Amino acid sequence: MQSEEQTTPEPEWWEQPGMPWNSKPTKADYWCLGWFGFVGLFGLAMIPLRAWLLGLHPPIMLAITGSRIGAASTGALAAVGEVQHWLGYLLIGTLMAIKFDWIYWWAGKLWGRGILEVQAANSKRAAKNIARVEGWAIKLGWIGIFLAYVPIPLPIAFVVFVFMGISGMPLWKFMVLNFISKTLWSFLYLGLGWWIGEPVVEVLDQYAKVANWVAIALLVVVFFGIFRNQSKKKGRAVEAVGNELEAGK
Predict the structure, then answer these.
(1) Distances from the Cα of 233 to the Cαs of 8, 109, 161, 195, 240, in angstroms?
(2) What are the backbone angles phi and psi of residue 155, rounded to the nearest 5°?
(3) Can you say whether the dihedral through the CA atoms of 45, 47, 52, 56 is positive or negative?
(4) 162 near 116, Cβ under 8 Å?
(5) pLDDT at 16
(6) Which long-range contacts does 29-35 make (Cβ < 8 Å, 24+ apart)?
(7) What is the Cα–Cα distance from 53 to 62, expressed in whole angstroms?
(8) Which of 53, 83, 200, 202 could, after both became Cys, cross-link 78 (CB 3.0–4.6 A)?
(9) Residue-wise pLDDT tens digits, 119-160
């Protein structure tokens, strides 16, 4: 009796490690992944722009980025009477700061923990931090949104926003709670800058003199980082091809 040789079928490309989905991707999966890529590039572009805007006019920085530094600097300027309509800058800044957060909610809705596992695979430290924050998110539920902007080096916002999508929270509810949370935190930083006042203004005046050079330096750093990462990827690809050729001899 002739035995048939059983072979294990090779996994499809979308089943390879590092992919967030658990089944063949749809258009929604491609769009969501594409948005993640866009947000990454947008974040890189904003690094030198933030430095330039801080020296140009902190309230504009607050309105465009919603950043903590922009809020604190605007509060300091408002305390000495140099900024009018600071509330408008703050609210616009909140909208700008949360404009991409729906993507993380969508990723949680589409892929569940898949996107968390992709990020956790980067390093043991990343996996540990994500697991820690995920435990908090499970315990706190929607209240975790109000802790998403705590200034500590943990991926709180990323994990919490993904978890809101996993939990089935409606998008409108998530965005409303997110808007309220970000606004409250911006008020906190603006109040801190207002309380400190004049010393912050003096620092801003000195920084404005070198802001353009700082922005240029950061732009160089960003491009250097991109070039180095691309060089490493090419090096790995060449090494992999060399290993395959060596194994085929």
Answers:
(1) 30, 31, 30, 48, 11
(2) -80, 55
(3) positive
(4) yes
(5) 64
(6) 29/110, 29/111, 32/103, 32/106, 32/107, 32/110, 32/111, 35/100, 35/103, 35/106
(7) 9
(8) 83
(9) 888 788 888 988 889 888 888 889 999 999 988 888 899 999
Element (H, E) at 246: helix 211-247
For Cα atoms 236, 240, 241, give the angle at the middle one, nearest 5 degrees.
Answer: 120
The whole-angstrom separation of Cα 188 and Cα 193 is 9
Q: Could you tell me the two tokens for 19?
A: 């992919």
Cβ 52 vs Cβ 215: under 8 Å: yes
Q: Residue 187's pLDDT is what?
A: 93
pLDDT of residue 203: 57
Residues of the chain with pLDDT below 50 are 1-4, 233-249
**Which whole-number Å values give the CA distances from 91 to 85, 163, 181, in the listed order?**
10, 25, 12
Please tell me the predicted confidence (pLDDT) of residue 228.
62
